[in-house]
Amino acid sequence: MEYLPNILFALVLIVGIGYFTRNVKRLSRNIKLGKDVDVSDNSSQRWKNMAKIALGQTKMVVRPIAGLLHVIVYIGFIIINIEVLEIILDGLLGTHRLFAPLGSVYDFLIGTFEILALLVIIAVVAFWARRNIIRLQRFVKPEMAGWPKKDGNMILYIELVLMFLFLTMNGADYQLQLKGAAHYVNESGIAGAFPVSQFLSPLLEDLSIANLIIVERTAWWLHIVGILLFLNYLYYSKHLHILLAFPNTYYGNLKPKGQFKNLEAVTNEVKLMMDPEADPFAASDDNAPEPEKFGASDVTDLNWVQLLNAYTCTECGRCTSECPANQTGKKLSPRKIMMDTRDRLEEVGKNIDANKGTFVEDGKQLLDDYISREELWACTSCNACVQACPVSIDPLSIIMDMRQYLVMEQSAAPAELNNMMGNIENNGAPWPFNQMDRLNWVQES
Amino acid sequence: MGNELKVPTMAELSAAGQQPEVLFWVGCAGSFDDRAKKITKAFIKILNKAKVSFAVLGTEESCTGDPAKRAGNEFLFQMQAVTNIEVMNGYGIQKVVTACPHCFNTLKNEYPGLGGNYEVVHHTQFLTQLLEEGKIALEGGKFKGKRITYHDPCYLGRANNVYEAPRELIRKLDAELVEMKNCKKRGLCCGAGGAQMFKEPEKGDKDVNIERTEQALDTRPEIIAAACPFCNTMMTDGVKNKEKEGSIAVMDVAELIADVEDL
User: Fold this and answer.
1) Which residues in A lie closer than 8 A to residue B206 (C-beta atoms)?
2) A102-128: per-residue pLDDT in tens?
3) Predicted structure pTM score
4) What topology is assigned to B138-260 in CATH?
5) CATH 1.20.1050.140-classified regions of chain B
6) In this complex, is the C-beta atom of B87 within 8 Å of any C-beta atom belonging to chain A?
7) What is the tens place of the pLDDT at every residue in A138-153?
8) A90-95 contacts: CB < 8 A, separation 24 or more?
9) How far is Cα A311 from Cα A238, in angstroms, rounded to an integer?
10) Which residues on A lie below 8 Å from B159 (Cβ)?
């Protein structure tokens, strides 16, 4: 019986991590539904970008208030995880404060965690107020209605609860140490420093040792179970960015933002057209692969980095708030492009799961069922969204791929753009001027 | 003004066995748009004054394909690109300067993958270089103390990280350079990019160029400087919409310089 808590803990841990592993597999399977793209170049620059942008948060602080608050929660998250390691080991081994022999280092660590926990609470409250009281514009755009709004708040509530549980656990522990409760006392005096949770003393000091143990154990268990639940919530939430921001910044675009990729399939066609040796009457090769589809109408036409982008998006809306089309009341919102891509990808993934590993046509696609043509045509390709993203997401590349599908597969460009393209084709300029008149300006006064 | 523009073409120079140092890529706007033609001429005047060895392709030039590509027509873009590349490679062109950020971006970034490798510079970079080499001297005076705000073209700024060259030129005019609320990396688009120039905007509350013009007007400028023929059109329309065309001029950086040099 004495090992019951250890066994229970191990079970909870196995279930929590097992379910998380299942989610990671599903995530990676879905991302791999995207087309292959070569991102093996420049690995040193890529590591640098990841260190600067994800680890160093350099693009977060472009907006100082949100940036500072985020850095607090981010540092809190990373550092407080050291404590989670101790909690897991204690749980498995049946020890209490396993790292306490570190002495003053341990005191320093626990004290730091407590201060960070308090700062995280303050930052989380500020974040909540920005979403719910101040109602910053980018948090109340149409695409945020429903689940995205709930999700955003849910994350804040969970973080708040976890921090309170952590402090309660420490506060009760401190009292137990003061009262000399068995299992809690340490030969070398008080283990840990409690700069924040000591203020819970008035609430706790009158409790009996038995009750304090109940408080401490309850907080301890809820805290670690909460963390495991939170870990498994990630896959269903925008909060997934805490993991994916790292690979996403690694695989982010390294080329000048203005450089859009040249479609290789088109290059081959164009070369063939320009080749005087090519035999126009040559019979087509029966074994020739089916011609590649131009552009994207569904998530599987996008490449896997674009799909990774979609899962990485944390819906902060910096892209949308910088978008000239969105600022002037158009339907286009780059954030919605990313959210739609993720939603559709999830739908495709579930379809595959429900049909034993193969996708069964569902009569839906990313274009029209999620992203409307009106949104796609409102883009000025100005790259403001790409610049604004703190984790190197590129909504513009998806918009462009979808425009390619509309124009090259469906000939469905707006009429005025068809005129423009007709002009380029016929007379080498977007306007109906004769190419032979191209130098007339020299003679005009 | 009397002095004739000297605009040699590649065909003429090639026939005479000469090779210019740089090709001036005029672009469609610079060739056909009445407002942009003035920018072209201003830049040519500076090139002539600085005795730069250059030529244009003239009737052999064709759209780079930028608006087609941004509209999604990769096929048309690549057809344009390979045709232009064939012409340019035929003349053995090494260096290209252009006053259009869209041509600049496409030639610089998207042509190499299709066989067109050139050193491509924007005219504001080229002018900065002329200034450094002492080939042009900007004796302020005319614009001294004038409030000038500079609008970053997306395809020059964010797309290619050229923020300083045009600003340096404006500062050299002894003008007071004032920045808009959104500038440099966070510059707001004029509304013309991504082939929007050639269509009506989607339904919304406002046109993008009006929003941007309002940001420009907030700086109380005497001149709005641009470095792109399309931005120029959009900002000029915006200023007219606000009925400020009498007091605020929209000018290309090249025009400012040509003006100061009394060309």
Assistant:
1) 328-329
2) 989 999 999 999 999 999 999 999 999
3) 0.95
4) Rossmann fold (3.40.50)
5) 10-130
6) no
7) 999 999 999 999 999 9
8) A91/A5, A91/A6, A91/A9, A91/A10, A91/A13, A91/A224, A92/A6, A92/A9, A92/A10, A92/A13, A93/A6, A94/A2, A94/A3, A94/A5, A94/A6
9) 8
10) 256-259, 383
pLDDT tens digit sequence for B181-210: 999 999 999 999 999 999 999 999 999 999
What is the third-level CATH fold of B10-130?
Answer: Glutathione S-transferase Yfyf (Class Pi); Chain A, domain 2 (1.20.1050)
Q: What DSSP designation does A303 have?
A: B
Summarised one tens digit per residue, pLDDT across range B19-32 is 999 999 999 999 99
Give the 3-state secondary structure of residue B252: strand
pLDDT of residue B1 exceeding 50: no
Distance CA A245, CA A319 (A): 16
DSSP E strand boundaries for A119-165 = none
Measured between CA atoms, the residue of chain A closest to residue B35 is A441
Q: What percent of chain A has pLDDT over 90?
A: 87
Q: Say which residues have a Cβ less than 8 Å from residue A183's Cβ, sequence separation at least 6.
A: A96
Go through chain B and tell me how many residues it has.
Answer: 263
Q: Which residue of B has its CA nearest to A318?
A: B186
Length of chain A counted residue by residue: 445
